[in-house]
Amino acid sequence: MIPMLGAVLIISAGPQAWFNRTVLSNRLAVWVGVISFPLYLWHWPLLSFARVLETEVPSVNIRLVAVALSVLLAWLTYRLVEQPIRFGKGNKSKTAVLMGMMLIIGNIGYFSYLKDGFEFRQADAPSKTKLFADVKALCCSTRRTIGSTISAKPNWVPVTSI
């Protein structure tokens, strides 16, 4: 509620308010605003992928690289995708191509839903699920109790040679 009220106050202050003229009109603030949506789209996949690669919370360095890469990809997305679509020539052809792509992607999603996913992924899903469950049971089990927060306590099983 408080952020929404802050936004209302900033907007209602008008373009001549000191905060709007000085802070929000700053080139850096405008640039961050311009890339904010592509940045929103890029940062979670990269941070999630880093987590998958590390199998735990990635180090600070890896997270910083992922965020920096997100900023770079967001800027490139703005320059190479968003600007040409919004301000380039051929608006009717762009609209037709985007509508066609939307219909194709929507149909792929719908038909994969009807078939319970893609067949090539279903063939090895049980083995991957079992492998993930085995790995999680061996090294990363968490104990939960009712009314408590989740506390991760590694359950390491020593490997002995036979």
What is the distance, rounded to the nearest whole angstrom, between the alpha carbons of the first and last residues? 62 Å
- Point out poorly predicted stretches: none
The biggest beta sheet reads: 2 strands, antiparallel
Query: Could you spell the SSE succession in H and E letters?
Result: HHHHHHHEE
Number of DSSP-assigned strands: 2
Mean pLDDT: 82
What is the rounded Rg?
A: 24 Å
The computed structural class is: mainly alpha
Proportion in helices = over 70%
Q: How would the global form be characterised?
A: extended
Q: Note the total helix count.
A: 7
How much β-strand is present in the residues? Answer: under 5%
Strand order of the largest sheet: 1-2
Would you kindly provide a written description of the structure presented here, covering whatever features stand out?
This protein has 162 residues and is mostly helical. It contains seven helices and two strands. The protein has helices at 2-13, 18-22, 27-54, 60-87, 91-114, 119-123, 125-139, and strands at 142-143, 151-152. A two-stranded antiparallel sheet has the order 1-2. Strand 1 and strand 2 (151-152) form a beta hairpin. Helix 3 crosses helix 4 (60-87). The longest helix has 28 residues, at 27-54. The radius of gyration is 24 Å and the shape is extended.
